[in-house]
Amino acid sequence: MNDTIARYFAAFNADDTDGMIECLADDVAHHVNEGEIRVGKAKFAEFCTHMSRCYKEELTDLVILTNETADRAAAEYTVNGTYLETDAGLPDASGQTYKLPAGSFFDLRDGLITRVTTYYNLADWIKQVSA
Known about the structure:
Low-confidence stretches: none
Distance between the termini: 37 Å
CATH architecture: Roll
Structural class: alpha+beta
Largest sheet: 6 strands, mixed
Mean pLDDT: 95
CATH class: Alpha Beta
Order of helices and strands: HHEEHEEEEH
Number of domains: 1
Number of strands: 6
Shape: globular
Oligomer: single chain
C-alpha cells in the first residue's frame, strides 16, 4: 500500500481538504468522472469545496494497489453518501442516500500525487437519488 494514497483517503473520510491537498503535487491533474480536467491545487480545492456543499461521503471497503516503482496506484472502494444540495444539471437534492462502487487511479512523483482520475457509474447514482 502507498502511504500517500492512504493519507489522501484518510483525509477524504475526515472531510479534511487541506490534508488531501498536502498529498498533491503543485501541478496535480484532477480528472473527474464527469467534466473537465482541473490542474493545480487551487482548482482541486475549489472542486472539494463544491463537493462538500452538495455531498457528504464516506469511503469504505478501500483497497489500494501500487506498482513496484510506486509511481502508479489504483484504489477501489464503496462510496456511501448523502446528497445534500442540488448540483447543477442533476436531480434535486433532498437528503437522499446512495451507495456505489468507485475507483481512482493515481500517478505519483517524489511521494506526491500528480494525477487523480476517479470513475463511478453516474447512471447508477442518478437512479439511486431519483428513486
